[in-house]
Amino acid sequence: MKVDFFNDVIVKGTKNGLNVTWMLAKVIIPVYFIVTFLDATPVIGWIARGMEPIMSLAGLPGQASIPLVVGNLIGLYAGIGAIKAISFTTREITIMAVMLSFSHALPLETAVTQKIGVKGLPVILTRIGLAVVSGIAVNLLL
Amino acid sequence: MSFDLIIELVYKSFTGSAKSVYTIARVVIPIMVLMEAGRAYRVLDRIAERAKRFTRVLGLSGEAAFPLTVGVIFGLAFGAGVIIQWAKEGTLKKRDLYLLSFFLISCHAVIEDTLVFVAIGANGALLLGCRLTAAVLTTLVLSKRLPLERDLPGSLQSKI
To answer: How many C-beta neighbours within 10 Å does residue B150 have?
Structure first.
């Protein structure tokens, strides 16, 4: 089969890339706005102080609970929007990236795995479990 | 909140989120072009052929290599699409379905996810290494514990 490099690869790939970019812009921009505004209120400070003891197990500041919650409820890109809206060190970003890559977009992706026929609860528990264990492990190793 | 503060926050949100979207677009668009090239030149079939050796180690059958490759590279939704289609046609065993799902929940869309996190400053090698290791370990543990094909409940197939 002959491949039309320009149309099949360059044009189609760029189109897909732009589609994905648009899709993630629709998620990142609102999350970024909300987190930036929340950051100016005492709310994030309260959440951060409350979560500090738990987050410190993974070597993270209390504010890190925000991208983790947003990422798990909405999706990876929303979590990234929240990470960028608050400033973190690269070490903290790596730890959050590992945790989020195991466990993200739980409502959406659990629905997908249920379609394959696997029950939701074991999937969610496995993912959150992996995120917690990996967060603690990477903190110790890095 | 004073008016000045609101203006400052809107400006900060606008430029900050635009920058983030740009950072990610710079990664995502080339990846999509690469993936189309992979599809056009049938690289996926070749990778899946090699992945057969790997699926055997995990306790999966050779038929699982293709959906596994699709899921690991393109993501859960695409992987699940192939898995559902193959399950309908009866190509995949119930055991394979279970093990595949558990491999893919911790390790999917690795190219895009890894590079996007690298774009915002994360350590990519560590990220990818953790995901692969965890996926292999959970699947291995599960494949040892999972009953043989004939003992599995029949509900899996009928659910789809």
So the answer is: 6
User: Per-residue pLDDT for chain A (142 aa), expressed as one digit of tens each?
Assistant: 678 889 989 999 999 889 888 888 888 899 999 999 988 899 988 999 999 999 999 999 999 999 999 999 998 999 999 999 999 999 999 999 999 999 999 998 998 888 888 889 999 999 999 999 999 999 999 8
Range of the domain at A75: 5-141
Q: Which helix (H) or strand (E) holds A33?
A: helix A12-40
Count how many domains chain A has.
Answer: 1
Q: Note which residues in 68-127 of chain A have CB less than 8 A from chain B.
A: 76-77, 80-81, 83-85, 90, 93-94, 96-98, 101-102, 109, 112-113, 115-118, 123, 126-127
Helix A106-116 with A120-141: angle, nearest 10 deg: 130
A132 to chain B, any CB pair closer than 8 A? The answer is no
Tell me if A104 sits within 8 A of A76, measured CB to CB. Answer: yes
Q: Which token pair is A29?
A: 């921009």
Q: CB distance from B54 to chain A under 8 Å?
A: no
Question: Crossing angle for the helix pair B65-74 and B94-106, nearest 10 degrees?
Answer: 20
CB B133 within 8 A of CB A98: no
Which positions ≥6 away from A2 have C-beta within 8 Å? Answer: none
Per DSSP, helices labelled H in B92-123 are 94-106, 110-119
- Number of Cβ within 10 Å of residue A31's Cβ equals 27
Measured between CA atoms, the residue of chain A closest to residue B31 is A17
| Partners of residue B122 in chain A, C-beta under 8 Å | 90, 93-94, 96-98
User: How much is the ipTM here?
Assistant: 0.87
- For residue B127 the two structure tokens come to 């990220």
Spatial CA neighbour of B84 closest among A11, A41, A7, A114: A114
Mapping DSSP to helix (H, G, I), strand (E, B) and coil, where does residue B152 land?
A: coil
